[in-house]
Specification:
By secondary structure, the chain is of the alpha/beta class. The chain folds into 2 domains: 2-80, Alpha-Beta Plaits; 85-279, Rossmann fold, CATH 3.40.50.170. The chain is built from 8 helices and 13 strands. The strands form 3 sheets. The protein has a 7-stranded mixed sheet. Strands 2-3-1-4 form a 4-stranded antiparallel sheet. It has a two-stranded antiparallel sheet with strand order 12-13. Helix 3 (96-106) links the parallel strand 5 and strand 6. Helix 1 (16-26) packs antiparallel against helix 2 (55-67), helix 3 runs parallel beside helix 8 and helix 7 packs across helix 8. The protein is globular.
């Protein structure tokens, strides 16, 4: 037997849990973990189940769920737990989030396979080479933006990337690219959204005397920094902090928040429900 992760999204109605449980029992599958949620605002039901079964049993479970009248308009996915999320990382010049992801990946803490790192600058080449990963520079200018995004999409397809992580990639993606990467591109925002817009956010926060600074990881959408939020965190500060100290504290929060969001996505814990997420 092997361990599998099953995710299910469907119309909320009676009999869903009974259908899934019965299907698993009939193949003698062992449920290791199960979480579920009914979203009253969308009338959708979300379920994540981890179970042990052989491949024939998995196929029988999927067939039983597909055939059940209790489950309608479903999105059903089952994968082996050992199948890691193939990931492409995008970065510009700030390397703190990139370094954290690389370290956690190398140490086995993140269930992802990093296909490579893409940047619009050459600054992180040596860092990426140290970890033995491909590093691709795709320069971006106002005149070449469309061509650069086309190159990026070709690389995503060639590497069979399931996830694209913007680890402080300081480029605004076009609406078309956002739509093509919908639900599989995560960005880290250097603010506890909603927050200070524009440049020098930590200096804006300092000028306003904030007592909390934070970071938000969210899915990329055409609405800049308005995508469904996956993870957030904050750190308490005082009037005595300098802007430089706020930057240092903020970078630490950004690292933690992004890595947690990537892990949640890679473990199939994140479900989209309208403009928000359900995270098990």
């Amino acid at each position: 037997m092997a361990r599998h992760i099953m995710t299910l999204t469907c119309d909320d109605r009676p009999g869903i849990v009974a259908t899934v449980s019965t299907a698993l029992v009939q193949v003698s599958a062992n449920i290791v973990e199960n979480q579920q949620y009914s979203d009253a605002s969308t009338d959708l039901f979300f379920m994540r189940t981890v179970f042990d079964a052989d491949e024939a049993g998995v196929a029988a479970v999927v067939a039983a769920i597909d055939a059940s009248p209790a489950i309608a308009h479903e999105h059903l996915s089952v994968r082996p737990e050992t199948q890691h999320c193939r990931t492409l990382i995008l970065v510009s010049k700030f390397d703190h989030c990139l370094l954290d992801l690389l370290y956690r990946w190398k140490s086995g803490d993140l269930p992802i396979d990093i296909a490579g790192v893409v940047s619009n600058h050459d600054d992180c080449r040596e860092l990426v080479a140290y970890f033995g990963l491909p590093f691709t520079v795709i320069p971006v200018t106002p005149d070449t933006k469309a061509e650069a995004e086309a190159d990026l999409l070709r690389l995503v397809a060639a590497e069979h990337a399931d996830l694209v992580v913007l680890a402080r990639y300081m480029q605004i993606l076009s609406d078309d690219l956002c739509r093509r990467l919908e639900g599989r591109a995560i960005n880290i925002h250097h603010s506890f959204l909603p927050g200070f817009k524009g440049a020098r956010p930590y200096h804006q926060a300092h000028d306003r005397g904030v007592k909390l600074i934070g970071a938000s990881a969210h899915y990329v959408t055409a609405d800049l920094d308005e995508g469904p939020i996956i993870e957030q965190d904050v750190v308490r500060v005082t009037h005595a902090e300098t802007p430089e100290r706020l930057v240092a504290l903020g970078r630490d929060v950004e690292r933690r928040v992004l890595s947690r969001a990537v892990r949640d996505h890679a473990e199939n814990r994140v479900f989209l429900s309208g403009r928000r997420t359900i995270v098990f």
